[in-house]
Amino acid sequence: MILVVSAYPDESIEADGAMERIAIVDMVLAGHSRAYLDISLKGHIFPEWEEVSPGVIVHRVNLFLHFWYILSIAAKASMVYVHSVPNALRVLPLYLSFPIVTDLSLTGGAADGGPLWKLAQLVAHHKSKALVLDVGAEVPRVAGLRMFRAAEPASKESKALAAFVTKDEPEVKPAHPVR
Question: What's the CATH number where 12 sits?
Answer without folding.
Answer: 3.40.50.2000
